[in-house]
Write a structure and sequence with these properties.
The complex is a heterodimer.
Chain A (H helix, E strand, L loop, with lengths): L1 E5 L3 H11 L6 E6 L2 H11 L3 E4 L8 H11 L4 E6 L4 H9 L4 E4 L3 H13 L4 E2 L9
Parallel strand pairs in A: 1-2, 1-3, 3-4, 4-5, 5-6
Helix pairs in contact in A: 2-3
Chain B lengths: L2 E6 L3 H11 L5 E7 L2 H11 L3 E5 L7 H11 L4 E6 L4 H10 L3 E4 L3 H13 L4 E2 L1 H18 L3 H5 L2 H11 L4 H8 L3 H15 L4 H10 L8
Parallel strand pairs in B: 1-2, 1-3, 3-4, 4-5, 5-6
Classes of the chains: A alpha/beta, B alpha/beta.
C-alpha cells in the first residue's frame, strides 16, 4: 500500500508516519503540505491511497481530491481532519473520497480505516453521523 | 470568567483534536499546551490554569507523577486524566494522585467536554469502561477488608432493631414494627450495645450511620 500524506503541519505528518511506518504492508511514498503539491505528487507517485487533511493553505483538501480523482479515479482518498461538519463529510464523499477519520481518533482508527478503504469500502470515523443518500 | 484549561499531551494530533472540541464550547478556553510532565508543571503555574487535561503516558515526567506534584503545589487545581488505556494500575494511581476525571482517548470525542463540565461543577467523571474497573476493584477491596462487624455479630432481628432505634423510633414503636414485645426490644438493644461495645443510644445511632445501616436523613 503506497501512501501519499497531505497535511500542512509537520508534527502531525510525523505522527501519522509513526502510525503507518510499523505496518509491513504500508509505506509513505511522499508528503505534501499544500493542496497544489498534493495534486502534483499524486500525478508523479501514483499512490494507492492519499491521507488528506482538509484545511490546507491554497486549495483545500476537497478541491485537491476532486482534481486528483478526475484524473486518477483509482486512487483512494481518506480525509483526516478535526473539522467534519455534515456538509464537509458530504463534500468529501461527493467528490469521490473513500472516507474520513477524525484526527484525534487517528491513533485507533487510521490503520483500520486505511485497510478498509484499500479493500474498496467507505470508512466513516466512529462517533460521526452521516446521512445516507 | 472562563475556565482556563491547560492541555498536556505529547501528541500533536490529540491536542489539535481537543482544541477543535473546546473551540465550540462556551465558558472554557485553552490557555496553554504542554508536551511533557515538566513543561506541564511550569506552565500550569505560569498561565494560571484551573483544569489540567493530563495525558497519563508522557515523556520526561509521566502524567501520574505530574498530577501528584501539581496538586501538592496547588490543591485547588483540577486534573482530567486522558489515557489510551483502561489499565487498572494507571487508573488507581491517577485517582490516588488526585485526578478528578479519567477519560479514555477512544471516548474523548463523545465524553471530553462532558468530563470538563462535570469537573467544573466539582464532580468526578469516569469513562464507563473505567468506572467498571473501579467498581470491580472497590468491591474486591471491600471484600478483602471483611464484612461489616454489625453484619457478622448481630442477628437479623438485632440489625433490624438497630436500624429502627437509630432512626429515632421509641422502644414501643420498634416493638410494634417488628411485632414483638417491648421487653424483647429492650433485650435486643442491650445485646447490640454489649456486642458492639456502645454505651448509649446516641453512640448506637452514630454507629448505625457510620456503618451505613441507616442514613442520616432517614
Amino acid at each position: 500500500m503506497r501512501i501519499l500524506l497531505v497535511d500542512d503541519h509537520k508534527p502531525t505528518r510525523d505522527e501519522i508516519r509513526a502510525l503507518i511506518d510499523p505496518q509491513a504492508d504500508m509505506s509513505v511514498v511522499a508528503e505534501a503540505d499544500t493542496g497544489e503539491l498534493a495534486v502534483t505528487l499524486a500525478r508523479r507517485e501514483r499512490p494507492d491511497i492519499i491521507v488528506m487533511d482538509i484545511l490546507l493553505p491554497g486549495i483545500n483538501g476537497i478541491d485537491a481530491a476532486r482534481e486528483i480523482l478526475q484524473e486518477l479515479p483509482q486512487i483512494r482518498i481518506l480525509a483526516l481532519s478535526n473539522h467534519f461538519g455534515e456538509s464537509l463529510v458530504q463534500a468529501i464523499l461527493d467528490v469521490g473520497g473513500a472516507g474520513y477519520v477524525r484526527k484525534f481518533r487517528a491513533f485507533e482508527e487510521l490503520i483500520p480505516a486505511l485497510r478498509s478503504v484499500a479493500a474498496g469500502q467507505t470508512y466513516v470515523s466512529h462517533g460521526s453521523t452521516v446521512r445516507k443518500t | 470568567m472562563n475556565v482556563r484549561l491547560l492541555l498536556a499531551d505529547d501528541h500533536e494530533m490529540m491536542r489539535e483534536g481537543l482544541k477543535a472540541l473546546i473551540g465550540k464550547e462556551s465558558g472554557m478556553e485553552i490557555v496553554g499546551e504542554a508536551k511533557n510532565g515538566q513543561e506541564t508543571l511550569s506552565l500550569a503555574k505560569k498561565v494560571g490554569a484551573h483544569i489540567v487535561v493530563m495525558d497519563v503516558a508522557m515523556p520526561d515526567l509521566n502524567g501520574i507523577e505530574a498530577t501528584r506534584k501539581l496538586i501538592k503545589l496547588n490543591p485547588n487545581i483540577k486534573v482530567v486524566a486522558l489515557s489510551g488505556h483502561a489499565n487498572r494500575e494507571f487508573v488507581r494511581e491517577m485517582l490516588k494522585a488526585g485526578a478528578s476525571a479519567y477519560v479514555l482517548k477512544s471516548r474523548a470525542y463523545e465524553e471530553f467536554v462532558r468530563a470538563i463540565r462535570e469537573v467544573m461543577d466539582g464532580k468526578k467523571y469516569l469513562s464507563p469502561e473505567i468506572a467498571r474497573g473501579v467498581v470491580d476493584e472497590y468491591v474486591e477491596i471491600s471484600t478483602n477488608v471483611g464484612p461489616n462487624p454489625a453484619f457478622v455479630m448481630l442477628t437479623d432481628r438485632e440489625r433490624e432493631s438497630l436500624q429502627l432505634i437509630a432512626e429515632g423510633k421509641s422502644t414501643k414503636e420498634v416493638a410494634d414494627n417488628l411485632n414483638v414485645s417491648v421487653k424483647t426490644v429492650e433485650t435486643h438493644r442491650h445485646n447490640i450495645m454489649e456486642k458492639l461495645n456502645l454505651r448509649s443510644v446516641a453512640e448506637l445511632t452514630k454507629y448505625a450511620i457510620r456503618e451505613g445501616i441507616t442514613s442520616v436523613d432517614a
